[in-house]
Structures are given as C-alpha cells and as structure tokens.
Design goal:
The protein has a two-stranded antiparallel sheet with strand order 1-2. The chain is globular, with a radius of gyration of 19 Å. It is mainly α. The chain has eight helices and two strands, in the order αββααααααα.
Length: 214
C-alpha cells in the first residue's frame, strides 16, 4: 500500500514523540519524587504517554510497524545507557576538573534502562495484541476502547516489572510499593486524558481502502 504524505508525516511525528518520551522517562526516573504522599519516580510523569503513542502508531501504520518501533526504541535506550557509561569511565580532562558529577548522576541510568527495556518490550507487545483483539472484535467502533483495554492490561504489567527490576533491593520495600501504586494511578489518569488522541489519526485499513483502485 502506498502511504500518503500525510500518513507518513503522522508516522514520523508520533514515532519520534514515542522514542523521545522513552528516553526522557529513563533519565528522569533517576530521581524519586514525593507527590500527594506517594513516592514516584520522575519518569512516570512522561512515560505513560508512550502507551497511547504506540496505539496511534498501531492505528495508522499497522501491527508490524508498531512492533518495530517498540524494539527500535529499546535499542536506542540501550545505546544511550552504553554511551553514558562510556563517557563516565573515560579519563576526564583534568584542566577542566574531575567532572565526577556526570558519572554520579548518569551512570546509574543503566539499571533504569535495562528495567525499562524489559518492562517496555513485554508490556508493549502485550498492549499490541490486546489492541489487535479489540479491533478484530469491534472494527471501527468504540475506538476509545482500544486505548482503555490495551492499557488496562499492559500498564500493571509494565509498572510491576519496571519497579521491581529498577528499584528492588536498593530502596525500602514500602517505597518500591508506593512507586508501583503511583505508577498505576498516574498511568491510568494519563490513559483517560489521552484517549482523544486516538481519534486524531486515521486507521491504516481505511487509508488502504481509500487508495485502492475501483
């Protein structure tokens, strides 16, 4: 199927936002915040948007592109963590100073990235399958349900995997549980707020039918 310029532009924009949100979330997760009585990693402020962004890519580009984006984002995040580690261990220019702050701040991102990659790939692939099941069952009806159903399954899985891999053993158990609970609450709220976004892009199969020769 030949994609229109508008469709290609949409895929590029949403994919870039998805990868950027993944990277920002990994870095900001290094700081634990206290909001409304809950311990919460900073990445939770932006990471929940990735689920709806993935749904948008799925809708406009199809299952294979969505899966490719998931693995590509994981690879980019891993490359970022490796680059941070390499820069932190290479000798510093002592005429500037030891610059140990860089390593102290960003070197620990590796565990966060590993946790994020494992949680992201597993939960987003599950999200993709639930999305597919919803579309097969309801076709173009209840598009808001695609977001709700897929996120309702993937969000708890993602939160549990990420929190356990990233923080278990380093933080008190009650803090880890608080982060998990806060993740569920914030991601659920973002899911509800982001539902209208699914209506801003066109279905892949509708675009295909529109461009099919009569």
């Amino acid at each position: 199927m030949a994609l229109t310029e508008r469709t290609l532009r949409t895929i590029v924009i949403v994919s870039v936002l998805y990868v950027a949100a993944q990277i920002f979330a990994d870095i900001t997760s290094l700081r634990i915040l206290l909001l409304a009585g809950f311990s919460i990693d900073g990445g939770t402020l932006i990471y929940p948007f990735t689920f709806t962004l993935r749904d948008m890519v799925h809708k406009v580009a199809g299952t294979m592109i969505a899966r490719t984006l998931i693995f590509l984002a994981a690879g980019i995040n891993l490359l970022m963590a490796g680059l941070f580690w390499l820069v932190s261990v290479l000798p510093a220019d002592m005429t500037v100073g030891a610059q140990e702050e860089f390593g102290a701040l960003l070197a620990p991102v590796f565990r966060i990235v590993v946790a994020s990659i494992i949680a992201e790939v597993i939960s987003e692939l599950i999200d993709t399958e639930v999305y597919n099941l919803w579309v097969k069952r309801f076709q173009d009806k209840f598009q808001w349900g695609r977001v709700l159903a897929s996120n309702a399954v993937s969000v708890p899985i993602d939160s549990a995997l990420f929190v356990l891999i990233a923080f278990a053993g380093d933080l008190p158990a009650e803090v880890v549980f608080s982060i998990f609970l806060a993740n569920i609450i914030v991601k659920g709220g973002v899911t509800l707020l982001s539902i209208p976004a699914i209506y801003t892009v066109k279905d892949r199969h509708l675009e295909k039918n529109k461009n099919a020769p009569e």
